[in-house]
Amino acid sequence: AFDLVTHLRLLHKMETLGILEETVVWIKDFLIGRKQRVFLNGSLSGWASLKRGVSQGSIFGPILFVIFINDLPDA
Q1: InterPro entries in the record, alphabetically (predicted)?
Q2: Fewest beta carbons within 10 Å, which of 14, 23, 27, 28?
């Protein structure tokens, strides 16, 4: 589920919740423009841009995911 978080929607939700603008900008810089590549069978893939998702394995991933889904009971 962490890989399905839409960056712009997450940032909008953070603003709606009243999270400080400086924090939202920091998170935006953390999320937008990320790239990854994969090492498989001795070969390294090319770079792929990440259009959505939050970092799995980082301390921020679960926090950002909870912010993203916090309004599900209202839906």
Answers
A1: RT_dom
A2: 23
